[in-house]
Amino acid sequence: MPVARPETSDSRVIAHVDMDCFYVQVEQRKNPELRGLPTAVVQYNSWQGGGLIAVSYEARKYGVKRSMRGAESKQVCPQIQLVQVPVARGKADLNSYRNAGSEVVSILSGKGRCERASIDEVYLDLTDAAETMLAEAPPEILEAIEEEALKSHVLGLDNEEGSEAKENVRKWLCKTNADRRDKLLACGALIVAELRLLVLKETEFTCSAGIAHNKMLAKLASGMNKPAQQTVVPLSSVKGLLESLPIKKMKQLGGKLGSSLQTDLGVNTVGDLLQFSEEKLQQRYGINTGTWLWNIARGISGEEVEGRLLPKSHGSGKTFPGPQALKTISSVQHWLNELCEDLSERLQLDLDENKRIAHTLVLHANAYKASDSDSQKKFPSKSCPLRYGAAKIQEDALNLFQAALREYLGLFTAKIQGSQNNQWGITSLSVSASKIVPIPSGTASIMKYFHGHQPSSSTKQSQDNFIEESAPPPPSGNENYLELNVDKPQIELPCEETTIKYAVPSLHQLEDKNNLLNDQNPCSSLKNQAQDEFMRESLPLPTSGSEHFSGVNESQLMKNSCGEDPSVKLAMPGFRRLEQKRKTVKNKGTSSILRFFKNQDPSSAPKKLEHVENTEDAKTLLSVGPQSRSDSSLDHNQSELPKAGPFEEPGTSSAPSSSQYEQRRGVWSFNTDEIDPSVIDELPPEIQQEVRAWLRPHKRQNVAKRGSSIADYFLPTSL
DNA sequence: ACGGATGAAACC
DNA sequence: TGGTTTCAT
């Protein structure tokens, strides 16, 4: 059996792509008259001109900075154009930016594994693409190197006097006797240049990028030359780069940890870290952080680019600063209702477009309490199983809030004073949905694969665990959840081992998400313990117990549950639609980003990209390699882009025979420990990622020492 | 008691 | 776990 050799991080090709002042660009695309002008995006114009959350590079020249007030920015830059963030339900509405970010992700995910790091940042693992290019069309044989690639910044590349910078870059990119890893980076640079061009042509957004051998260095590099430029970090430049880099510039070291490094250890640059042994760092900062620090000092970062195009959670919140603090339950209820509506809408979209379901509802708040001894006590967060439908989320959120408020106030009696402010005020509220998992799709293939595998042992304890987890205890002091748990029928599944459980849906049940959400058949749809829980919570309430609020509107509930409002669907394009759009766009592959803007009349209406002259576009260069780009896209990011399959294309799938039906709807269980890892490689590619996610090793606990296993970390290489 | 809204992740 | 804290943009 082959020993898994940890691949040295040095031979990967990783890119970090960072949109330039993204919110500003979104607004400038919406209103092209703003292009080229000093512009900032501001929210809540009411107070001091609102707070800036994005500033164009033209405005930055005047010293305008994020977190400035609108009025403040006018003082240093009187001509500045301030654009307000859209407002919906009384709060800032960031949906247009989220959607714009999705546009970008859908383009960038076309090449290699892609991780959505934030609304405007993406990591790409371009190793495979770069390897392929190196093997089939290395830069040295290309007579014409993409203009945009020639404008790359290559760290450590000495600019010889008298010769053009681009000429130097060309030489570096095409150097025949270069280290193989440098050649891979060169290929990465070419690919990224093309991708950035593609993004620009399809979205009108510029971005900056860093290309390096790991995420940390790529992220560092992407911020070094902005806007609309890219930076390459060859292996040989790493030591010099980190040596003088202020410690606080490193991601994750911009806060307290970075300050501690400076104050407690006298570390001012990343290079200063080199003198400390790993043990020393671990002793002071813990096993994980210590090792991490020791590694980053050497430019080592083994973090993988996760193939994840969608957010792991959704949240909606609002602050109520100072005098606006909420002082009555009913005002809290009002705002919770707004936030929950917003959240519910986004959850429904996620379900419709991405076939994902969230399982946990979390409420956060901040509060002040005048005059008490422990008035600085934090307002506790509370969570509960998430039930779909705006009305239910609202109801649950309010219950969570009341439970938290009781705890905060130190009250353990049943009632909270209705509208009397007992010196408390809520200064912020937020609701969020987490534990989002894909609806079982492709599950049948997994089942088929594991068909015949029988659990080798039976553990009573694990069964007990499962039952217990299916009926989580209610938030403390909350009667409603007691009621739910008592009154609702418990779902018991005849399982022996419970590491992973599947209840496989029938086709017709998945065809209609009404069935999915409201189905009363315990054996239908939904995989694993958490989803069973979800289903249980989605069952209609037996009778009362939830009638606290007269505002609950049943039709509204149904509308949200069913998500049939077409306007909502149009508001947020799904990836599939974007993918289609992308394929229809053809552009010239040779124009540089600067040329793009030079030719663009700022005062004219936004240019329709589809009208750009057609030629063989940038994709030509990108799609080197045996497989088509759509193939590679799906392979790398399958878990995020719901691929059309038997469960999602009911029209194309025939009804299963009754025997198949019985087979598929059966409940399965198996222990992940019993899965032979080598067998995963033989799974269909689109299944592999899902299975690997179950088996992925967790981060070391603060007990095991580094070195207990050589596979635990990357050995330092030739840095 | 305005750096807001929103995420991710480590920690305990 | 769930809840808290940190960090980032």
From TrEMBL:
Catalytic activity: DNA(n) + a 2'-deoxyribonucleoside 5'-triphosphate = DNA(n+1) + diphosphate
Listed GO biological process terms: DNA repair; error-prone translesion synthesis; response to UV
Biased composition (Basic and acidic residues): 607-619
Pfam families assigned to the protein according to its UniProt record, in alphabetical order: IMS (PF00817), IMS_C (PF11799), POLH-Rev1_HhH (PF21704), UBM (PF14377)
One MF term in the entry's GO annotations: DNA-directed DNA polymerase activity
Subcellular location: Nucleus
UmuC domain mapped to chain residues: 14-254
Enzyme Commission code(s) on record: 2.7.7.7
Domain of life: Eukaryota
Record flagged with keyword Glycoprotein: no
Region feature (Disordered): 451-480, 579-664
Keywords carried by this UniProt record: DNA damage, DNA repair, DNA-directed DNA polymerase, Magnesium, Metal-binding, Nucleotidyltransferase, Nucleus, Transferase
GO cellular component term, pick one: nucleus
Family named by the database record: Belongs to the DNA polymerase type-Y family.
Protein name, per record: DNA polymerase eta
